[in-house]
């Protein structure tokens, strides 16, 4: 069963904003940040080598397109690239993503400039240890290397013996 998420500014049957934390079926969902002001709502997801951000107007749920978006975390700043095809903003700065990918709480400050309007949105991206994508350290490598060396030695011995048998016949 796939997790269900409310998009930014999603409204319930009575018009209420569904801006509470989304429930997921498992703890492995991608890390998310959700925040809003009186004017805008923002939802970001860390996955696929980027922080993907959707923004809309709080009152109308209208998407905010072609704006300027910058994110800051502990002195690191990055400008987002707007994707017209998806309507999202992507932050792919390697230093910022490396910092955000570590387990913990990461306070973020988003600066949004949409036409004549501007706003600051603060949110926290929480990354659990289960959500990190660091390579797993496994004890299998030494065993595999040893097995490959042993197989190469056995093959070399078999080759030499076969050659010797041919010369003897």
Automatic annotation (TrEMBL):
The chain crosses the membrane at residues 140-160. It comes from the Bacteria. Keywords: Membrane, Transmembrane, Transmembrane helix. Residues 20-29 have a biased composition (Low complexity). Residues 1-29 are annotated as: Disordered. This is Secreted protein with PEP-CTERM sorting signal. It comes from Massilia agrisoli.
